[in-house]
Amino acid sequence: MLDFHCHILPGVDDGARDLDESVRMLEAAKNAGFDRIVCTSHIKKRGESVDKLDAAFEILRPVAEDMGISLMRGCELNLSAIDPLAIEEAERYCIAGTKTLLLEMPYDIWPPRWEDMIHKMAVRDINVVIAHPERYMPIKQDLKIADLLDEMYCTFQVNASAIKKTLFGGIKNTTIAYLLHKNWVSYIASDAHRVEDYECFPKAYEIARKSGFSGRKMK
What span, in angstroms and rounded, lies between the C-alpha atoms of 188 and 208? Predict the structure, then answer.
């Protein structure tokens, strides 16, 4: 099983603080049923180098392999880190060996040119996956924005913790319910920053499957 979104690389963002914590997260991920993990550390500033991510990835990759887990190097790219006049730069933040990009939107106000930016990525055949759409105020306030993103060939990644709260904990999140109903959710992921973030995944995934989630293969 694939974990498409997590912060497991040691010492690069607000996820695993050191190699020891990364290893404990790998153990928790394996116990949750994962054998493949995309390492999606934050990229929040324009021109931010991936060298630090690559170095941490090469440290963790053989450790994961010894545990039977295959790692892929990606990132969680914030829209604000993309130069609207140099959309081609987004390609270097795609998951290694693919044209798939995990894109984080601003939580409250989206920039005026966001539609144009995503459209230009689609024109370049970048497969844009919107990270945790259930968190974004513009979508919460108007689900037609999710329709627009789908029309621009975006798909969506929902956090397991939000699935559990919505479908099992009784906390209503109309964004998740809407996206699942439309079959637009490509990935349910842990978005793990700590060991305990993997604890809810098995139950959340089971709940989502019963609600019709089938997932899609990464391009």
Answer: 8
pTM: 0.93
Mind giving me the DSSP string for 142-169? -THHHHHHHHTT-EEEEEHHHHHHHHTS
H-only helix segments in the chain: 19-31, 51-66, 114-123, 137-141, 144-151, 160-167, 174-182, 201-210
Q: Whole-angstrom Cα distance, residue 200 to residue 166?
A: 13
What's 38's DSSP letter?
A: E
Burial class (CB in 10 A: 0-12, 13-18, 19+), 86: exposed
At residue 41, the pLDDT reads: 98
By the 8 A CB rule, do 110 and 138 touch?
Answer: yes
Q: Mind listing the pLDDT tens digit for each residue in 97-137?
A: 999 999 999 999 999 999 999 999 999 999 999 999 999 99
Task: Give the separation between CA 13 and CA 31, rounded to whole angstroms.
Answer: 24
Q: Is the pLDDT of residue 218 over 70?
A: no
> Which run of H or E residues covers position 1?
none
For 122-158, letters b (16+ CB in 10 Å) and e give eeeebbbbbbbbbbbebbeeeeebbeebeeeebbbbb
- Which of these, 25, 29, 36, lies nearest to 2 by C-alpha position? 36
Mean pLDDT within 178-187? 91
Mean local confidence (pLDDT), 5-17: 98
46 token code pair: 């324009």
Specify the 3-state DSSP secondary structure of 122.
helix
